[in-house]
Amino acid sequence: MAKIFCVANQKGGVGKTTTTVNLAAGLAQIGQRVLMVDLDPQGNATMGSGVDKRKLDLTVYDVLLESASVAEARVHSEKCGYDVLGANRELTGAEIELVSLERREKRLKQALAAADADYDFVLIDCPPSLSMLTLNGLCAAHGVVVPMQCEYFALEGVTDLVNTIKQVHANLNKDLEIIGLLRVMFDPRITLQQQVSEQLKGHFGDKVFTTVIPRNVRLAEAPSYGLPGVIFDPSSKGAQAFIAFAREMVERLQ
Ligand code: ADP
Ligand code: MG
Prior knowledge:
alpha/beta; 8 strands
């Protein structure tokens, strides 16, 4: 059975997409069969996996509206070693179109069930909001990975997300849990970041992943080459951290 994880945080620019594509590439490198689902109309995870969002015939939009299956809409990224269910601007419309439909929050879950046997991991890159799209991600998933920067308001932001996840757990998806909080863009020289990191561990205990993703320019450069950092520069500190994170994920699930 495939393990399905959402990478979510309602804040923008916190490292969701970077986490999704690099974890996908890291898992693929250690032999896991991975599907990356882009649920953000910006399509950054699609482009960052070497798939041109403007050239896609079918996307996650068609899957949500049940005009295509996952098997029909996915494409394989040769360079990255995983499959991509892509997104582009068309997905913006899904939010409104879904409102009048039945089972609107369970569309992705149902569609993924048909592709379950093809994968060990499905990773869903969520948009920066707690919208119907994110809700589809949360309803489909077994767990949530929350990337966060160790900054002053970090804990407050996470509290909102934790409450949403509790509600989805109670009302829509009994399987859902927070798998862990991932500290990203970490700079150990900044005292405040160390302090917030300690606070996080105090508050969330072993829900905080051991692996820490450092701030690393190679991770930021990689998307402009249409690659995850793990593929773009495997020896960089950022890439190494994501490979370690992929291993930690696999270990946590055993
Ligand atoms: P989100 O998907 O949450 O909006 P992104 O993953 O797109 O966030 O990251 C926001 C910006 O930060 C991007 O420009 C990305 O390249 C950069 N970035 C993400 N993680 C790192 C990192 N560890 N080191 C340096 N830059 C990073
Ligand atoms: Mg993003």
